[in-house]
Amino acid sequence: MKALLLSEYRELELVEAPLPELAPDEILLQVEACGICGSDVHGYDGSSGRRIPPLIMGHEAAGVIAKVGSGVTDWGVGERVTFDSTLYCGSCPYCRRGEINLCDNRQVFGVSCKDYRRNGAFAEYLAIPARVLHRLPSELSFTEAAMIEAVSVALHAVSISKFRRGETALVLGAGMIGTLIVQALRVEGASHIFVVDPDKSRVDAAGKVGAHTPIHLGTDDTNSDVSGIVFQHYAQGVDHVFEAVGFGATVKTAINAVRKGGTVTLVGNIDPNVELPLQAVVTRQIRLQGSAASAGEYPRAIELLASKQIDVSSLISAVEPLSNGAAAFERLYRKEANLIKVILTPNVGNGD
């Protein structure tokens, strides 16, 4: 099979690789679409430490079952499916509590680190344990289905924040995850959604899919400007802030803009360490909530995408064959303007 191999950092090659061998509980997926995640781009240059070459990356994928293992009974050849990018064990204390994203034995497709190496879906075929599969409705294209993982991350962030219908929210960052959080908040009945980003085109796009007050700030603007705009509408601050960037400055902005007793949900994680205004958090009784991946939100993500309640069309910037994968990575790495999500299609021409 053809595969896009990270042979060394910033070196991607289209190679011939052996077909994966199936364990009894696995299916062989013929990959039809796989999205390039921001974490893949950070792995591409080695900055994340979680894409150690040689490795086939890719975890946001969908396709058709080409073969089933000897122990698989509930799935058949030809079914259209996607899969949870987190491969959880199902038996550890966290899995038994339903917190599969915190699994003690967690692995992620397309990731290699000091603890494990698991090839991903930038290839024509991928072996996947049947327990992480999800069926796709016919009305959902493979290209859209490659966005399910990202949608599930946004839904998980909103769920874990304990957001309630009618509450207010500020989303910091109008990239892919931030914009999907805006849409998730709209679906869940937010009374007012603010969104902030230094990229005006992204802010405007977030406004079209649900943000009531898009805020465009240049790089020289201060954090207090965001709080000032929020306080003009809600003098006490918003009920929830979703930080979808991962910088120390935006974490500080989040704490400044939330009301007393409100919740700041941290989704971005670019800076490994940030300075925390501890007294503000303690004296204003702010809850800081981390959000990692997703934990059971795939069915809801599929439902919302299939029904068009969440629209990902504006976030998909390009669809490219796997043979153009190296060039697509470079475009994302260079932060090409207006390029958010690139989907690679290993089996060009097979249709949706």
Essential attributes:
27% helix; alpha/beta; 7-stranded mixed beta sheet; globular; 11 helices; 352 residues; 6-stranded parallel beta sheet; 28% strand; single chain
In short:
With about 350 residues, the protein is α/β, with parallel strands linked by helices. It contains eleven helices and 20 strands. The protein has helices at about 40-45, 95, 140-145, 150-160, 175-185, 200-210, 225-235, 250-255, 280-285, 300-305, 325-335; strands at about 1-10, 10-15, 25-35, 55, 60-70, 80-85, 85, 105-110, 110, 115-120, 125-130, 135, 170, 190-195, 215, 240-245, 260-265, 285-290, 315-320, 340-345.
Structure description:
This protein is of the alpha/beta class and 352 residues long. The protein is 27% helix and 28% strand. It has helices spanning 38-44, 93-96, 142-145, 148-160, 176-187, 200-208, 223-233, 248-257, 278-283, 298-306, 325-333; strands at 2-8, 11-16, 26-35, 55-56, 60-68, 80-83, 86-87, 107-108, 111-112, 117-118, 125-129, 133-135, 168-172, 192-197, 213-216, 238-243, 258-266, 287-290, 316-321, 341-345. The strands form 5 sheets. Strands 3, 5, 6, 11, 12, 19 and 20 form a 7-stranded mixed beta sheet that branches. The protein has a 6-stranded parallel beta sheet with strand order 15-14-13-16-17-18, with helices on both faces. Strands 2-1-4 form a 3-stranded antiparallel beta sheet, with no helix packed on it. Helix 4 crosses helix 10. The longest helix has 13 residues, at 148-160. The chain is globular. The model has no long low-confidence stretch (mean pLDDT 94).
